[in-house]
Amino acid sequence: MKVYKIIGLLFITAISLTFCAMKQELQTEFPQEIQSAFYQKMKDGIDSGGTHFYIEFKKPFAANIKLKKIYFHNQESSVEEITKNTFVAHFYQINKKEDLILDIDPAKEYGNKAPVIQKSKFDLKRNEAVLEYKKDNKTQFFKITNLIEKPLR
Q1: I want to staple 92 with a disulfide (CB 3.0 to 4.6 A). Which of 13, 28, 44, 50 is the partner?
Q2: What residues does 143 pair with on adjacent strands?
Q3: What's the rounded Cα separation, in Å, for the pair 48 and 54?
Q4: What is the pTM of this model?
């Protein structure tokens, strides 16, 4: 019986250590100086329900750094270069409404699909984002705080 307890403890310890290794480590400093980071909500019409996220740097990027993704408001998006110093990511809200069948008889509601809820990789506040980048072919993450919302011009 004592052998089973030892094996059980070793198994639980091994499982808990593997989950610790999977956690993403955030860098405290970004290798380039960020001039500003902000987001703008899109207007109604063609661009309804989305956000543009901008990052501006003081100097052009070094050759060994590549921006990959931004995690913001429980979404992720790839980063596009506008100029050597300015990058943008687009977050779109999909307004896909499906009809639900509601009835007293549960058998008639059988075809309804359950909602898909996606959990973000990071636990972020409303004014925070995480920037994923590669430096010397190693993926790293940097948390951007105190983001501001600027109105569209």
Answers
A1: 50
A2: 130
A3: 18
A4: 0.69
